[in-house]
Write a structure and sequence with these properties.
The protein is mainly α. It folds into 2 domains: 254 residues, no CATH class; 238 residues, no CATH class. 77% of the residues lie in helices and 0% in strands. The protein has 24 helices and no strands. Helix 9 packs parallel to helix 15, helix 11 crosses helix 12 and helix 17 packs across helix 18. About 3% of the residues have low confidence.
Length: 533
């Protein structure tokens, strides 16, 4: 029965139709476009992230310390494991939605638990391997593609995430149980996660020196973690020195702990799924008030409620605004650190105005709610579709929500950067106008992508927020527009001032936005009529 469940869960989570939202055989054009988008995303990822670590590997190899790259692999894979398990354990292991279907079947609860854990771990391994692949390539390129080293790496890589899986599974359950006692449980969870993220960033800025590359600046931190967490050293020593002892320690300790964990949580999983999460409902004796509002305002308010009711939606789509406002405030206290960080990550030799503009552009691109919000209507889309509301009004509401989420924060951030770095008033105003126009362009593009490639048939919201094609196109499409703007800047930088180039970019973005708005006005109703939730 375990194999049958595994096959069923894999089909549910990893089939092309589940991931893409449409049948590849029935839509060859969409399949080609999606394939090109995936190739583009891979090239961009390997070209930027890969080059960064390839160059770091060259530096470390020259210092005779290429094994430090293994520290990055360990930390990044553990960090990704923590994030995935924190978001997915509650709702996948605990309080999973298909419990009512699986519980009455003649299947032992332990079998269901093992099958679900297997699928989650496969998802984790695939994500971690893709994320760390450029670092892995850099390490083996500079140390040599030794077969024994590769085998040691593959084996050790399987056991490193087991410890965070154990810890974060319990933490995920604890957070869900504690926050469920409050009315605003989702909001509390979102705030707690963002507080943790900001705390990590603050700690990172406080330990990094301005003259140090952001990647090399993490080495001392990793060394400290290695001293406090022995498996960290076991992983590095096993691969770098072909140490069977350290590999054996890593395998034995983690496998024993994981087996104990899996058998000890069986009863807890069974009880929590039987009980379910009970929301704390408080009686409200306030008199009901009726207010007349426009359709657009009502739809935008609906988008805000949906955003705050989904932790994974808020964390992923709200990451950009939160990080942007944090960095802008931090620039008042860590000006040189942030300038150095941006210079290393985006490119040295660029004007500080360009660095700030690229940073804000990236955060705008990462605020991609129009690319997924229509899909998140799910099975309820037919209700929205049946209302006497124009299709373009629904699309406008999703665009407006995204603009309200990022534009005010972007404008405030430009003013704060202007204070800390010393932009002129004219430059600040031009930057604000450029970001507003760029945000409208990106939001309209995202909304069109979601209209053309909706994904209403999903089991959980993570499929739409993190795994859908429109989420990928939304983020990397925004990066493409940023790259195009960069080409324009590089072409004109020797002939014009920054403010003059920014005004030209405003015009270009407006020209690109007009046909998208025209498409929404004239094609939304036709596209909506063909959609089936």
């Amino acid at each position: 029965m375990y194999k049958q469940l595994i096959k069923l869960f894999f089909k549910e989570n990893f089939s092309f139709k589940r991931l893409l939202g449409f049948d590849l055989k029935r839509s060859k054009t969409k399949a080609i476009l999606v394939g090109l988008a995936l190739i583009y995303a891979i090239v961009v990822f390997l070209g930027s992230f890969g080059y960064l670590f390839f160059d770091l590997g060259r530096i470390l190899n020259g210092m005779g310390q290429p094994e430090i790259l293994l520290s990055f692999i360990t930390i990044y894979s553990i960090g990704l494991s923590i994030m995935i398990v924190l978001f997915r354990a509650s709702g996948y292991l605990f309080y999973y939605k298909d419990y009512d279907i699986l519980a009455p079947l003649p299947i032992h609860p332990r079998t269901v638990l093992f099958a679900k854990m297997t699928v989650m771990m496969v998802m984790l391994y695939i994500s971690a391997f893709i994320l760390t692949l450029p670092i892995v390539f850099s390490y083996f390129y500079w140390t040599g593609f030794n077969i024994l080293s590769i085998i040691f790496f593959l084996v050790a890589f399987l056991f490193v995430p087991l410890a965070p899986i154990i810890v974060m599974s319990f933490l995920s359950l604890l957070v869900a149980m504690v926050t469920s006692k409050f009315r605003r449980s989702k909001l509390i969870s979102i705030i707690l996660i963002f507080v943790i993220m900001i705390g990590i960033f603050m700690f990172s800025f406080s330990i990094n020196e301005t003259s140090v590359n952001p990647l090399t600046g993490q080495i001392n931190l990793f060394s400290g973690i290695g001293n406090a967490y022995p498996p960290f050293k076991w992983f590095i020593t096993a691969i770098n020195e072909h140490s069977f002892l350290n590999l054996g320690l890593l395998i034995s300790t983690h496998s024993i702990a994981f087996v104990i964990f899996m058998f000890s949580i069986q009863g807890l999983v069974q009880r929590t799924n039987q009980k379910g999460i009970k929301s704390n409902i408080r009686k409200n004796n306030k008199q009901l008030k009726y207010q007349e509002k426009s359709v657009l305002v009502t739809l935008v308010q609906k988008e805000f409620k949906k955003f705050l009711s989904s932790t994974i939606y808020a964390i992923n789509a709200g990451f950009g605004p939160v990080i942007l406002i944090f960095l802008s405030i931090a620039s008042l206290f860590y000006q040189s650190q942030i300038e150095s960080y941006l210079g290393e990550m985006i490119g040295t030799g660029l004007d500080v105005e360009v660095l700030i503009l690229v940073l804000i552009g990236f955060t705008v691109a990462m605020t991609y709610t129009p690319a997924i919000s229509l899909s998140l209507e799910g099975k309820n889309f037919w209700i929205l579709k049946s209302l006497p509301i124009k299709a373009e009004t629904i699309v406008y509401s999703k665009i407006a929500f995204n603009l309200l989420l990022i534009v005010p924060i972007a404008a405030i951030s430009i003013l704060l950067f202007g204070i800390s770095i010393g932009f002129s008033i004219v430059t600040q105003l031009i930057l604000i106008v450029l970001i507003v126009v760029f945000a409208v362009l990106i939001s309209a593009f995202d909304a069109i992508m979601n209209m053309l490639l909706p994904k209403f048939d999903f089991v959980n919201e993570a499929e739409v927020v993190k795994q859908s094609v429109t989420a990928l196109l939304g983020i990397f499409g925004g990066f493409t527009f940023i790259a195009l703007s960069g080409l324009v800047y590089s072409w004109l930088s020797d002939m014009m001032s920054f403010n003059s180039i920014a005004l030209i970019l405003i015009g270009i973005n407006l020209v690109l936005t007009v046909p998208m708005i025209y498409f929404i006005i004239n094609k939304s109703a036709i596209i909506f009529s063909k959609m089936k939730a």
